[in-house]
Amino acid sequence: MNKKNKIVLIAAIIIAGIIVLTQSLYVVNETEQVVVTQFGRPVGKAVTEPGLKLKTPFVQKANYFEKRYMEWDGDPNQIPTKEKKFIFVDSYARWHITDPLQFYKRLTNERGAQSRLDDIIDGETRDQVASHSLEEVVRNTNRQADTTAKISDIIEDSLAFIEVGRKRIQNIIQETVNEETKDLGIEILDFRFKRINYVEDVRERVYDRMKSERIRIADKFRSEGEGEASRINGEKERELSQIQSVAYKEAETIKGKADAEAARIYANAYNKSRSSRELYSFVKSMETFENTFDSTTTIILSTDSELYKYMKSME
Fold first, then answer.
1. Alpha-carbon gap, residue 66 to 64, rounded angstroms
2. What is the pTM of this model?
3. pLDDT tens digits for 275-288?
4. Residue closest to 62 by CA, chosen among 100, 95, 114, 18
């Protein structure tokens, strides 16, 4: 064998060794778990610890499965409640693989698990919703509704009493589904209703009823508000008239006291001598002329009148 053939042979051996080595080794990450199969049949226990592992090359195969929590998201389904009200129910769940070996035997892969969960969870959800009223599916407790502005006094319909409630129904579905999936190697960690709504034709009627109810409540509030406004305006006018009356009385009293004080001051000032009294009489007479007569006034005076005396003296 020449040198060239030896090099080719060594290279072939090395390549074959690398291929055999890569087929013999596989890596398990922290988020994975592996079931080793030989000609499609599981061999040994499931590998759940991370690290570098060995298997028989070309004969055995490593099947990887998710170790973390996974999501199941159901499609909205039209379901009748106990009182035959059709609603759309949209739900979701969280699950994980607890027994990879049993999971592989029963479901093969995660796609098969999702399909199986669709049947189990959707079926149990339909059964539970159909066994309870709409109030039970929607509400959790029997607490009183929080209302403002005395709306509860206007709306006659009270909230129906519930015995089970949405939270308990969700727990029942989760427990029942776990019983059915126990032999599948998976566990349902959580189940919740994501959305609950009426079907389209029922929803329109509900919206119309809600609008008419709110309009009725608004009209009642508006009527009460107008009555209250009329009462307040009436009280305002009454109080205003009372305040104006009291103010006018006080003003007239003050004005009378002022006139009396002015008369007293005038009397003291003009009553000191005969000339001052005559001046005072003259000034008052002139004020009377100015305030009483104008250029178009015709008067008849007696000769004994003070006004006539001053007019005569002016002539």
1. 7
2. 0.60
3. 776 777 777 777 77
4. 100
